[in-house]
Amino acid sequence: MNQKLVTTTRKAGKLSQAFSESGGIISLLTGFFAFFIVSYNAHKYDLQVADKTFKDEPVKITPDQFNFFTYAKFTLYTYIKKFTGKSMDW
Hints:
Elements: H1 14-53, H2 68-84
């Protein structure tokens, strides 16, 4: 064997690995929340257009009253009604 042969092993630093893992988690969370934000914006836009178009109709909710929590409640209500077939009395 050759006495001058030296074997070196390299491993990425802990800091580099931590940044890689946190970047992956952040990109997954961003994609997850982006789905809900896009859907929320579509509902908000629909309410604004309907409010400007149909002024004579009685409106249950106005665009000013619509926020993310109202959207979450509406979405949960829709999914419960779709999967169970029961209408919730909220």
